[in-house]
TrEMBL record, chain A:
Residue ranges constituting the ABC transmembrane type-1 domain according to the UniProt record: 92-291
Family, similarity comment: Belongs to the binding-protein-dependent transport system permease family.
Protein's UniProt keywords contain Cell membrane: yes
GO biological process: transmembrane transport
Full protein name: Multiple sugar transport system permease protein
From TrEMBL, chain B:
Organism: Halopiger aswanensis
InterPro entries, A to Z: ABC_transporter_permease (IPR051393), MetI-like (IPR000515), MetI-like_sf (IPR035906)
Family annotation (Gene3D superfamilies): MetI-like
TM regions (residue ranges): 15-37, 88-109, 121-141, 171-194, 281-302
Domain ABC transmembrane type-1: 84-298
Pfam family, one: BPD_transp_1
PROSITE patterns per the UniProt record, alphabetical: ABC_TM1
Protein name: Carbohydrate ABC transporter membrane protein 1 (CUT1 family)
From TrEMBL, chains D, E:
The reaction(s) this protein catalyses: L-arabinose(out) + ATP + H2O = L-arabinose(in) + ADP + phosphate + H(+); D-xylose(out) + ATP + H2O = D-xylose(in) + ADP + phosphate + H(+)
Gene3D superfamilies in UniProt: 2.40.50.100, Nucleic acid-binding proteins, P-loop containing nucleotide triphosphate hydrolases
Gene Ontology molecular function terms on file: ABC-type transporter activity; ATP binding; ATP hydrolysis activity
Keywords from the named record: ATP-binding, Nucleotide-binding, Transport
Subunit relationships: The complex is composed of two ATP-binding proteins (XacJ and XacK), two transmembrane proteins (XacH and XacI) and a solute-binding protein (XacG).
Keyword RNA-binding on entry: no
Keyword Cell cycle: no
Species for this entry: Halopiger aswanensis
CDD domains tied to this protein: ABC_MalK_N
EC number of this enzyme: 7.5.2.13
Name this polypeptide is given: ABC-type D-xylose/L-arabinose transporter
Places the protein is found: Cell membrane
Enzyme superclass (EC): translocase
Amino acid sequence: MSTKDSPVNRFADRLGLNADDAWPSVVRERLVAYGLLLLYVIVIWFPIYYIFITSLKTQGEVLSLPITFVPHDPTVQNYVDIFRNRPFEAYTINSLIVASTTTLICVTLGTMTGYTFSRYNFLGNKALLLSIVAARMIPPIALIVPFFQIMSSPPLIGGLTGNLTDTRVALILTYTFFNLPFAVWIMKNYFDGVPESLDEQAQVDGCSTWEAFVKVVLPVAKPGIAATAILAFIFSWNEFIFALVLTRSEASQTLPIAVSLFVADDFIDWSHLAAGGMIAALPGILFGLFFQRYIVSGLTQGAVKE
Amino acid sequence: METSEKSLRRALDRLFVPLTVGPTLIWIAAIIVYPTARLLWSSLFWENPLTRETEFVGLRNFKRILLDPGGTLEVFNASFIAFTKNTLIYVGCSVTLSFLLGLGIAILLNKDLKGRGWFRTAVIVPWILPYVMSGLMWRWMFEAKNGAINGLLTQTGLLSEKIAFLSDGTLAMMALIIADIWVFTPFIVIILLAGLQNVPEQLYDAAEVDGASRWSRFWNVTYPFLKPSILVALTIRIIFDIRALDLVWVMTQGGPGKSTEVWASWLYRTSMEFQRTGEGAALGVIMLAVTFAIVAILYTIFGGTPYDS
Amino acid sequence: TGNSDGGNGSGNGNGDGEMADEITFYNAGSLEFDQGTEANIERFEEETGITVNVNEVPWANLKTSLTTIFNSQEPKVDAFNGPTWWLADFVNAGWLEPLELSDDHMSKFPDSLVDLVSFDGDPYMAPEFGKWGTYLYDTEVVETPPDTWDEVLEMGPELSDGSRSGFGLTWADKSVFTFKQLLYQAGGSLFNENNEPVFAGDEGQQVMEFVTQLRDEEIIPDGISSMGEGAVGDAFIAGEFATVESWTPLGSRAIDEWGEERVGSARPPAGPSGRATFQDTNGISISAFSEKKAAAQRFAEFMTTRESCKNNMLVEGNPCVVPDVYEDDEIQEEYPSWLLEDMKYNLEHAMSETYIQQPQVDDYIDEQITPALLGEKDPQTALEDAQENVTRLYQDIGLL
Amino acid sequence: MAKVRLDDLVKRFDDIVAVDGVSLEIPDESFTVLVGPSGCGKTTTLRLIAGLERASDGTIKIGDEVVNDQRAYERDIAMVFQNYALYPHKTVRGNMRFGLEQQGADEETIQERVEDAANLLQIDELLDRKPAELSGGQQQRVALGRAIVRNPDVFLMDEPLSNLDAKLRVQMRAELNKLHDKLSTTTVYVTHDQVEAMTLGDQIAVMNDGKVQQVGPPTFVYSNPRNMFVADFLGSPSMNFLEGTVHRTDDGYAIDLGAFEHEVPDEFEWALEGAVGDDVVLGVRPEDVTLRPDGLPATVNVVEPQGEKTVLELGLGNETTMKASVEPGGPIQVDDRVSVEFDRRSLHYFDAASGESLTFERAENEATAESAEEEQVA
Amino acid sequence: MAKVRLDDLVKRFDDIVAVDGVSLEIPDESFTVLVGPSGCGKTTTLRLIAGLERASDGTIKIGDEVVNDQRAYERDIAMVFQNYALYPHKTVRGNMRFGLEQQGADEETIQERVEDAANLLQIDELLDRKPAELSGGQQQRVALGRAIVRNPDVFLMDEPLSNLDAKLRVQMRAELNKLHDKLSTTTVYVTHDQVEAMTLGDQIAVMNDGKVQQVGPPTFVYSNPRNMFVADFLGSPSMNFLEGTVHRTDDGYAIDLGAFEHEVPDEFEWALEGAVGDDVVLGVRPEDVTLRPDGLPATVNVVEPQGEKTVLELGLGNETTMKASVEPGGPIQVDDRVSVEFDRRSLHYFDAASGESLTFERAENEATAESAEEEQVA
Ligand SMILES: Nc1ncnc2c1ncn2[C@@H]1O[C@H](COP(=O)(O)OP(=O)(O)OP(=O)(O)O)[C@@H](O)[C@H]1O
Ligand SMILES: Nc1ncnc2c1ncn2[C@@H]1O[C@H](COP(=O)(O)OP(=O)(O)OP(=O)(O)O)[C@@H](O)[C@H]1O
Ligand SMILES: [Mg+2]
Ligand SMILES: [Mg+2]
């Protein structure tokens, strides 16, 4: 092994491509796998790259030919523009408030309910759980009309004036529709994996059910909660159609709407759109980079289990 | 004093289940059950767009959506047929292709490779970007003059003339399908990867010792364990695509003409643009039914785990 | 149609007397792409001291937004910019305030346009800028443009070769607009005075026949794109059409891309009944539920003066709906006079109709004629089916 | 510390009767082991005592108080779970403190007790680690420590050693023994491992099918099983059972075991008096089967050398086989013909129909008399 | 059937050397057991023989063929996995057929072989069930059956019994023994349980740290461990180790063990000749520690009755403790003072520094001589 201690060999070693310890066919397979994966990643990241460089181009460069794949004269002007000339600050704040409130509600309710579903055999819990699963299959688009009607009719409760359209509250309520059943489901499956003996130990240690839940189970369930929270946040952050229907001004419009506003009847301002798009995509990209593990686990807990 | 504290603690303890489940159930009732009930209800009514008066019309809305209004020449409404066809093509192609692609990527990612985590991160990202941004991004990619695809193809000489992808019905559908595959393949990858990781490693060893070839190992070991994941991947993917409007809406708005009009955009247009809420609701109910039917069918094909007896 | 909004707010509304110092204006899409409007708003704010809060709503969503707001009678919106297609519905529902525009103000617009925006004699929309028919050709291919439908059919085959079609028809994304323009050229209309659809009559058939012939002779390209897509403009500029019957903005765009020499303009080929074009105007209306009607009235008026109209055309190239402006020196300087002359002619000959449930009606027509024009459905049946659908709709509503 | 008393305890889960009328006295300061095969209701019994399940019937007393209606957090017990159930997010110290914190103990007491327990268990140096950083044996110690600091009335332990490897298990067993000697806290210990039960308990309760089969000091139970279940369950290899019919002979009783005839030694005759003509089962433990000349002829089927002993499987006649535990290193090989004898003192007779021991009653009386004597002496 | 030969076998995983130069001869038709603590490389060695891992170095021969470059499916082996690795979606029959199908055997052969194996293992009636419907022991049999039908050169088994409960494990052990007697297929068996290793193997190879420590017949290895590791690993409770320095005395050698002075019996004097002044370790198995008057004085610290025997922990002096295995039922109690002696024939001496046995060499020579003699006789 020491005879071929070149950097290339060492690199191959690191990637498990050294034929010494593995079957030659396995090494070949790995090599092919690396190649294919790399190719795939390049292909799927190319559009993201392209929209990113578009956001750094001047409008002139965007519209000029031939197309440049590296901006001549990269500038952040587009980003400055959208925040200066358009209420992107308001859109961002709306997005943040809507996504985080939705997340908070879904995580709080989802955690409590998921825990109880995981631990208790109460009357009708199977049927309730099943209906929560079924609720996830209802196509949201089918409910767009009822939602629209409900949100635009005068409120049933509370002394608020006017209806809920064009308020963040409407979006938050709507988004819990997507996310709450999902959150309950993820958390239920997560708690199923937390040994019940932990709660029992806590009870033996003198905790009431509530104390055991708060002091022992919740801290242990942090990764599950993180997974739920991240997914709920991303879903809410990204949602478009309901926002399109339920919002009409910067009082409640979120970033996806803001981005779509760059599309005019006969003209699209690509460079600014790209900048806005990158802002809207930022949490997704960041979460993907740093919390991939949670996204994957949340998704598999929420989707695959049973 | 102390006893009252004790009994309060005990009382709260007794109420644990109702207090933890109750709010969610109420919430779900308000946010899911009530709207769904309203959907069913309003599918039976007609609202006059002029006077805003509503009128009970029974199943007329369903008839209008499904059947030929004249009822003379054809049984089905031409729009229904056309948009159903579009939906089938859109859902069928993108689900099939993204499934195959996702399966391939999942199998590659399941290999014992260094840096797997990075690949997985890189693969996931498209799925967690806002659909609007993805849709517009692809619209930009396919743009006739300055789009990257035309740019790549012409500037490398592969193509002499630029193609107005989104101006041609077939090409626009293809563009939509590509965008859809781009967005949703990561989802398939994650779900199938979870399934692949459920296969007990030792079964592969056992099969290898048994002399099984690679293909035989896939069918005899991998596939049975992958089935539950396939079920989930296909179910969620299909019901998601049937309902998904975002990409269609920002990329083509159903155009050119009505060549990319699918059920979701049709529903949106009917109820929001034309204010035919009753018919929109009827279409919603139909989608609901079809969704449940598809789930049921998929369950009969892929249901069950390898451990079932 | 009953117009009962008189008592709704305007009479006793506090808005009439004192002038509010700000109004809310709903604009379709971002102002960034409406630089003409933006410039005029700035001028308005400067001159009157009234602040205009512009609310940008995606174009596809504007009608829904307004409908919700009006439905709940909220004073959220004072004025908005919209097309003429909704006007009938909105007026009918009592959601719009009649505009207090002097005859003087209105008389500068072509009569047909004034008709279009008036109900029971009151204007409900101040026309801001328009899009109407235009006919362009590529001088490198065409020496003398065809003057009538027949000539189109005659010359077409010569002008078409492998990569080029002789004739392009387009109204961005709306094949029904194309149909309407041809229908007017044939002397027909969608509705008669009694709100009965009549487009399946002889004139409609002539249109379908004409287009079918165009297709049979391969003068127009195969496929959906030929029937209604902004990209026909792109194709024209890419040299794929010898002539194109399109809308006004394409003129300035072609000049930008080709230079003045290559672009040819003419009056549209005359149909059996003449050279009518189709008018699609955007204008400003005022909500009946506004609490700042006086300021809104002022705004509507200001935005549609001759001056504003001209300014809008200068800044953004939005075709002005005041024929007089085409004589203006500044405009003459900006655009070639032969183009302006045709634009003015077409403006004055533009036709349109307003009718209840226009988007729905248009969709019914569209959904039938598209397959017919593609050769997938018998044109006669298609028109009749469409007419039947519209009739049924109007019966449902109670108009018929 | 307190005694625990179960009276006719029953626990039903839907259709399953997990605990079926258990009555058991667990004396103060005793170390009582519940032992039995999987699913026999040991864990359920323990959880009933802990208050983690609610009894369907019967009463549970801790000290003199009936605690049926108290939840786990209201009873003064500490429990060690099979998988240790350490709080993964807390350090060892945090784990050990938690119970005391919940009781509202003051900081000083907490620190003192934690230090003491950590000292006792030699885990002082691990106090700031998280459970995931500990080996199995260390986790086990922490779980014990967490119970000890509480200084509860009763320790409950559910198979606390079963996740450890063999060597460590033996070691921890000895430590548990010493710990109990030191603290003398009343302990109820659940295991399905009979060696563990025998080694640890002052008193063992053998359970089967939700019922207690026999209670008593381990060696007593081992040598005087009340029925065939207990006889079979304790001991490895298990007791040999040979079935046959009792008949009178000239000088007493004999049992016809098919392969041979067994003469009942004089000291057991009283037990078989009433059983003439009945089917009975003779039980002989493998270690009581000795190779000696002039005994019964047998063939060696299997030789299992186990180091300190060698286990033989012997064939007597055509059908009957039995195991014998012999000194290792002998020259015995498969197919050798040998001759065996049973240790006369350690024979067991059971009624074949009921499985009850025929010899048990007297043994128990003797034991009671003995202990009564002892008490008198003391 | 074939012999297997490993020469200087090495397997590295990144930085870990899992198998570190193993040389081992596995004779044709033998039953060889690899035994050792967790992580010592047993499984890896087995997987190398199977062809599931590729050797980093060294050679593997099956029969006379070097198979290093053959993958598992090219070698003629069958393997039984710890958790059985049955295909859960196939019936028992399907599981057993699969290997033969893959080899392309014809239907008739397949059916015949499956029937035969099922008969042999008494699982005929289970053939149409799925694994999930079987008990652990039945699954174990199916896993065996799957291997048997293949009729391979070599059986490889990785802890096949470790998932069974104690009683069943003992039973299956005996069956494995009989099966090997019947089929005589060369078998390599991995376990970490020393009792299992002793009971099953013709030959056991004790491994530690990726290296083979000692190979030989089980009883020989038990009584003649080559080093302290082997001595400690085999036997439960483990051998007692007492460390001290060797010095000459008038009539031989003695070792100062702190608590007492140990006189080296004459028969071991040759081994300690060269060790005067060195630190050595005296090893005594618990069963060789006997309570006898006039021995060394000791105190009883712990009494662990285990039924067939009782294990005592004895304190000799202040620091030294040792275990003794005595007959059960004696009157011994904690804190009793007793007197002990060691069985002189079974003493072991190790070099304290290297852990190597000082007495091993001669024992091996004797054994070799003996077996040579036997062969001559045969
Ligand atoms: N929560 C429960 N619901 C239903 N049945 C249960 C429950 N807990 C235990 N049982 C059943 O009660 C019986 C006794 O179970 P228990 O856990 O007490 O046995 P165990 O003696 O501890 O066995 P093991 O040695 O396997 O732990 C079993 O048949 C079991 O299936
Ligand atoms: N695929 C692998 N990658 C990295 N290290 C490995 C791998 N397989 C085994 N090892 C390491 O090699 C060493 C030997 O492992 P092996 O599984 O052979 O031990 P073992 O003797 O079978 O132990 P056990 O009794 O626990 O099964 C261990 O340190 C283990 O962590
Ligand atoms: Mg248990
Ligand atoms: Mg192993």
